[in-house]
Structure formats: C-alpha cells, structure tokens
Sequence to fold (365 residues):
Amino acid sequence: MTAGKSAPALVADCGGLVRQIALAVPAAFFQPADVLGGCRPLVPLGNLIEALPADIEAFILLDDVSVPASRDWIATLDKVCSLRLVTLDAPIVGVSGPWIQDMFHVRLSGACPAVDRQLVCQPGNAIARCLAKVLDAAVVELSLGLVGGNQLVGADFRLIGHADLVGADRKPIAGFDNLHRLDPRPISVFGYRLQYAPAATEILLDHMHQFGFHIDQYISLTGLQREGRPLLLVAEPSLPEPGGSVLVDAARTLLQASVRLLTEQGFAVIRNAVPFVIVPDSGKRLPRLYNNVIVENAVRPGRLKPIVWVPQFGDVEPLQAYDAINCGIWEGLGFETIPVAGWSHLASRNGALRCASKVLRRSMD
Fold:
C-alpha cells in the first residue's frame, strides 16, 4: 500500500533530494566549553551545516537571546547552504534541546489547496507554530505520543518503535487510531518478542519489548530493496577494547531478536558495527550512533551517486576504524558518503545527526 496522492503523507526518511532542513540550538550551547564540562556541542552542528550543499535551505531555531552569539558562530562556518534564523517567541517558549527530530512531524498536505505542508504536533506546541509561520505551513494538532526519533518513514511503510505503540498496561495505546490519521502507510514494528504465541498470525504487541530509547539509534533506512524487500541497516553492538561486557552482550542478543522480527515482517537486513564506549562526562557505556543518518536516493547535479550523511566520532575518540567501516558499508551500497565529524560531543545525550535535524522538504528529482 502506497500513500495516496490525495491523503496527507509524512516526508520520508529516504528517497528524493533534501531541499529544506531545520536544526535547533538551545541557548546553553553557546556557553564556553569549560561550563559544559569540556563538551562543545556547536562543533557537530556546525559541521553538519558546512556539509550541506548550496541548494539546501537550512533553518536554525533559536531563543531570541541567542541571536547575537549565533551570528558570531555562523560567521566562523565555511558554509555554502542558504541559512535562515528562526527566533522563537520568548519568554513563551524556548529551545530546550537540540533534538528537533522529536519536536513535530512534517507531512505534505495532499489535496489541500491552501498550503503544501503541515507541521503535525501535540496541542500547544509553540515551536511548531513559530516554524510554521516562517514556512507558511499549516499546524495540525494531534494528540499523539509518537516522536520522530521512534519512527522511520519509507516509501510505502512506517517502522515504529514498540514503546510508542503500547501503554503502561502493555495494551495498544488509546490514541492508536491517530497513528493512521498521521499517515496512511502501513505500520511495521521494531521490537523483540519475549515469547511466541501458539499459531500466531500477526504481531502481538503485549508480548514484545523495544531495545533502546528510539528506533533511529539502531536502524537506518537505505531506500533500497534486496530481493523485493526493503533493505534496513541495523546496528551490531561491538566492544572496541579487550575484555567482555554484559551490557554489550545483552544489546547484541536483543538486537538480534529484533532483527528476527524485522525479517518476519518482510524486511531485508544487513548489519553495521556500532561500538559501545565509555562517555567521559557521564561514565556510562553508550553506543556511538552510526545509524543516525540522513539519506538521499536521487543523484544531485554534478554528483555520480546518491548522498548519505554519516556521523563520525574518530576526531574526538579513537574510533577512526569504525568511522571508516560504517562509511564503507554505505559506499558498498552505492552511496557517496559525506562524513560529519564531532558527534562525540553529544554522545552522552543519546543522539546524533538525524536526531539533531528535521527534513522539511524533499524533491523527487
């Protein structure tokens, strides 16, 4: 089933060329590195802006108090993309964090003649309202707990993390119908089974769990097919240093169980090595999110292959081999990789490149 032209449909995570993208920069990010415990979160965001081609328009959401500092920061960037600052309505609302992927959904309006796009959000979402005003887009308020990080949108399917499909009672969420109102594509589930129901003919949500916080931590859409199945890239947990780790062993087991369910639902899967490394500022062993990418499947003028932007960590941590391995996987699939360095600065916050961006428009050139 493919989303009909007359029905509102979400902007996909693969397919055409990215034309517009949004980032959010909280005021705290403009503080000196010593105040942030040595973390320099503007580094990866600046690197992403510098990696965007000239025909992409980027919108930067800011608090009004951050405008002078943001202009100084932008002046240091070697950028070619078009850049526009969007100042939020302080003190009514502020940018609380960089993870704009989770703040709202973007969809095409379908048959609606008045506007071509909608920002779909929870009631009262002032950030979506401010951006929609700049984009001349509509705001659609929908009671929906699903965030962008726990959903990946393909050409004719949506992959949603199990955690946003069930409530505390392990039953389907009360607003389940709103998931279908959001987008007509059929839903598949990212999760793993604790047990299998006898003669089960469909996925039973109350027998499942989800590994990880959000689906885009561990899965990338490629926009490709293998033997007629949508091809996914799924993380394979790795321990870079000698020795063992109960945490990494458990992650490996649960993600393998999750792959089993994905293949049962009709996906093809390949794996990519993802190191679990101690984060200095928290002391926790966390994954480096190489699956948190931005993908195009069309070819830009002057290029020979479609582009994928891949987060990199080897500029700060001794992970250069993993940087190369993960770029190599995408290159083996026929992509041109654009490495975007610096994401170790945000590793303790469980996000990377896709989490920190929101594609607002694609063209199907």
Observations:
- The chain is about 20% helix and 25% strand.
- The domain at 9-363 is CATH 3.75.10.10 (L-arginine/glycine Amidinotransferase; Chain A).
